[in-house]
Design a protein that fits this description.
- This protein has 649 residues and is an alpha+beta fold.
- The protein folds into three domains: 3-22 and 104-241 and 254-332 and 348-370, no CATH class; 396-546, no CATH class; 560-619, no CATH class.
- Strands 6-3-9-11-10 form a five-stranded mixed beta sheet. Strands 12-13-19-15-16 form a five-stranded antiparallel beta sheet, with no helix packed on it.
- The two termini are 16 Å apart.
Length: 649
């Protein structure tokens, strides 16, 4: 890095660290999705890194990280283990939030400083990347405050990929192994950024001749990244029928900042030649990504081939827009003279003064353009918008709730709501999107009780059953917060009959029902149930306890559970855990059949004639999981070989 980049980088870092300290310096954040993400980190540390590792504590069980990008949880677990357990899980998670917030600004700065050959010229684009919200899922509002950490971290890897590709783009060297590592990390962190990464590599290949040869030379990078991530992606693709697609809404509107960036990106096309081949790639990048988003939204969706929600793919177009707008605003020094040292301008030269003024003026323009709307650029956190886990625990008296759950009868805890509201008041403040927290997702950690509901929108079939009343293969089309206080098991709370609720409660092994005082007038389905009775309830929660405990599978060792079941007339009986193809069952020492039940549960065949039998359940990796590990091992070998062959950029 040129020495003239250190001061603007320091200014950016100081601002970012000050924001982080004010926003989440008091402890891990607990707004919206954060508690659930913290639980996923705890899951990896407690149960190991295998994506298909069974999580018995949410949704009657699920392979928690097989159908959700595991990258952030892996990073947190790596930090916690690297500290030799000196860091608590909560502290490791807090560190991840700091990293995820700072990452887009820092990687954008490094990439632009390399392309524009000036840290001051890179500063405006990096500042926008660091503070952008504007409805972008990977922005500060969605990626940090709401808790979609993986999306933001993957977003930050796109400029990092540009940085490692610059030597190949400008000099024609073979792409380095670092590019494969960045792409692989992007996939594991959030595949929504993969279209942007692939687009960037394709543009880097086509920007100069021989184009076809360069494109062919780039394919091993993508193949190597695919091999490195096969341990997750191969089972994911082959087991996809066990997940339910989630709806995420529409792409964000451009707004004043978006239109300003678009105008500057258009100007960047005119200034691209002065920045060399890398500048041309940066200038063309957002327009190519816009085409990718349009194809995804309007061409593939009617064919049933749309691979990712448009409002996630569009994040890649936004970071491309920021990079190109920085080129349009700042221009470039042009290619350095042979005698120049690392692109640094002589101290006190006209270029240094011009770059300083241009960089600071760009930051000022961004602040002024965003000032009318607080959610365009998130410039400074308000304490009320960034509650910590400790403050929410005190405010909601969660210690009392955890204690009550520990003492409750055996069985899972059903939360009537997915989230606990943080804002109360008149009807006008009761919209589903009001500030809330999914802190009940941490019930397994603090109370030792498995739960159903109480988490963010989840892709498991049992979650679909809870949201809409069936576990079928259709997508989950509404965010769970929109159902809170409205419906459960596909029926409005007022229309949910006690008998219907009792059937679901028995199938899912529900021993405790927890609601909030806002729902007190709509709980007849449990108030009138013969199976449940009102228990001692710490405000703002209402607790109902099952009169007779219900048996759940008990852990009997790694990957092994046992349960005693009474046979039905046809021989099939629910094991009160979610179905997944990796389950195997035995009774009296002999294998017995398993199948997926109508409600997404695991059913075992005890044989006709009824009776009570002890069933052993075993959960272990299958052929797709083992094959994925083998391919990834081959990818690691290929990475080493790739490093040793020929010239590396």
């Amino acid at each position: 890095m040129a020495r003239d980049s250190l001061v603007p980088l320091a200014l950016l870092a100081i601002y970012g660290l000050a924001f982080s300290l004010a926003a989440f310096g008091a402890g891990p954040p607990a707004f919206d999705d954060h508690p659930g993400q913290l639980y996923r980190l705890w899951h990896v540390i407690a149960r190991g890194p295998a994506p298909w590792a069974w999580n018995p504590d949410w949704w009657a069980g699920y392979p928690e990280l097989q159908f959700y990008p595991p990258g952030c949880a892996y990073l947190g677990a790596l930090l916690q283990r690297a500290s030799v357990n000196a860091l608590s899980v909560a502290t490791a998670y807090q560190a991840i939030v700091w990293i995820v917030y700072l990452a887009p600004g820092l990687t954008t700065f490094l990439a632009l400083a390399r392309v524009l050959r000036s840290g001051w010229l890179a500063l405006p684009g990096a500042f926008v990347a660091l503070t952008l919200s504007a409805g972008v899922a990977s922005g500060v509002e969605g990626g940090v405050r709401v808790g979609m950490l993986g999306a933001r971290l993957a977003w930050a890897l796109v400029p990092l990929l540009l940085l490692v590709l610059v030597p190949w783009i400008e000099r024609g060297d073979r792409p380095s192994r670092a590019a494969a590592l960045v792409v692989a990390t992007t996939v594991l962190t959030h595949p929504a950024a993969l279209p942007a990464a692939v687009t960037l590599i394709v543009l880097g290949a086509l920007v100069r001749p021989p184009r076809l040869a360069r494109l062919a030379g780039a394919l091993p990078i993508l193949a190597l990244a695919a091999a490195l991530t096969a341990f997750w992606t191969l089972p994911l693709l082959l087991r996809l029928e066990n997940a339910r697609a989630l709806a995420w809404g529409e792409p964000p509107a451009l707004g004043i900042v978006g239109w300003t960036l678009t105008v500057l990106a258009a100007l960047g096309l005119a200034r691209a030649r002065g920045a060399g081949a890398a500048g041309v790639v940066v200038a063309v990048f957002p327009w190519t990504m816009a085409l990718v988003v349009l194809v995804d939204r309007f061409a593939l969706e009617p064919l049933g081939l749309r691979w990712l929600p448009a409002n996630r793919v569009v994040d890649g177009a936004w970071i491309a827009l920021v990079l190109a707008a920085a080129l349009g605003w700042s221009g470039s020094r042009g290619a350095p003279a042979p005698s120049a040292s690392a692109g640094a301008a002589p101290p006190g030269s006209r270029w240094s003064r011009h770059e300083l003024v241009t960089g600071l003026a760009g930051v000022l323009l961004a602040v002024v353009a965003a000032w009318p709307s607080e959610r365009t650029l998130t410039l400074w956190p308000r304490a009320a918008d960034w509650p910590s886990l400790g403050s929410i625990e005190r405010g909601l008296r969660l210690t009392d709730l955890w204690s009550a759950l520990r003492e409750a009868p055996a069985g899972r805890v059903l939360f009537v709501r997915s989230a606990v509201p943080l804002v109360y008041g008149p009807q006008g403040r009761r919209e589903w999107y009001r500030p809330h927290t999914h802190v009940t997702a941490l019930a397994p950690v603090f109370s030792g009780r498995a739960i159903v509901n109480g988490t963010f929108t989840h892709p498991s079939p049992i979650a679909a059953l809870t949201y809409r009343g069936d576990a079928g293969p259709g997508p989950i089309t509404r965010l769970v917060e929109q159902l809170d206080g409205v419906s459960l098991f596909g029926r409005t709370l007022d229309a949910l009959e006690p008998e219907t609720f009792a059937r679901y409660a028995d199938k899912l092994g529900i021993g405790v029902v927890v609601a909030t005082d806002e729902d007190a007038a709509r709980l007849s389905f449990v108030e009138e149930s013969r199976a449940f009775a009102r228990g001692a309830s710490p405000a703002p929660f209402l607790i109902y306890l099952r009169r007779d405990p219900v048996a759940l599978p008990r852990a009997a060792g790694p990957g092994r559970w046992t349960i005693t079941l009474a046979g039905e007339r046809d021989g099939w009986v629910s094991a009160r855990t979610a179905y997944y193809p990796l389950w195997r069952a035995r009774a009296d020492g002999a294998p017995i059949e398993t199948r997926r039940g109508r409600d997404g549960d695991l059913e075992v065949k005890l044989g006709p004639g009824g009776g009570t039998r002890a069933v052993e359940l075993a959960y272990r990796a299958g052929a797709p999981e083992i094959c994925g590990l083998v391919v990834t091992a081959g990818g690691v070998v290929g990475l080493v070989a790739f490093r040793r062959r020929g010239k590396v950029a």
